[in-house]
Amino acid sequence: MAIQEPSGAPSALTSSALAAIRRTSAVDTVRARISLAVDLGLLAPGERLPNVQATAAALGVGEITVRRALRTLEDEGVVQRRPGRTGGTFIAERPRRRTVAQVAAYREDSERVHRLIDERIVLEAGFAQLAAERLDQPGLDRLDQCVREMDAAGSWAEFHAGDKRFHLALAEAAGLPSALAMYERVTGELYAYFLPYPLDYLRGSNEQHKAIRAALGARDAALAAGLLRDHVAELHHSMYVGFADSDNAERGDDG
Predict the structure, then answer these.
(1) Which positions fall inside the HTH gntR-type domain (predicted)?
(2) Neighbouring C-beta atoms of residue 28, cutoff 10 Å
């Protein structure tokens, strides 16, 4: 369901900005996200996908939606499902590429995604500045637990859950309920564009979390804010929009 916006000046979350993905069904968004991850090389041939429950939680949809999407992706030659104790859903050994037309909605929303990332940078850098002054030991322990969970994650879905908890805990530590509500709205919209990523890359991202946590523990507000700003700004290059922009430039596309 689309988020209702208050009346007034348009924002990055107005209905017009949401048009592309909001025209896409929940099943097709799952198809598009997995297919796009395959097209961009983020999911490798033969790679096992997390179970349905974990995939649904990571992509913010229901389990029935994931099952339907995977059945269709199997028919399209993107994934293979294998029965038995060691079975599951795997990226096909020779996956068909560019088979999901709904991927176009994600590429169409590229400009909007960059804008959401910028909004998140502003909010999280500010949260870090305040959190460095206000975080108590239980708050720091909460961040440490999230970091440990991400280190131990066995899939991109598990890592994504820990990553969300880390950033939310830091935002809550700033003690600004109205800004927190804005942050949850921005990240909620941004997470709709989340794609699976290789665990090696994600574990590198967790090293940045550790540096942010250390700056917060040292109560170095300027360092914490700078590290978090750079951490989130990296999404401009590492999120699918960065890959898509590079792909377009190589092919000489205008869009």
Answers:
(1) 24-94
(2) 21
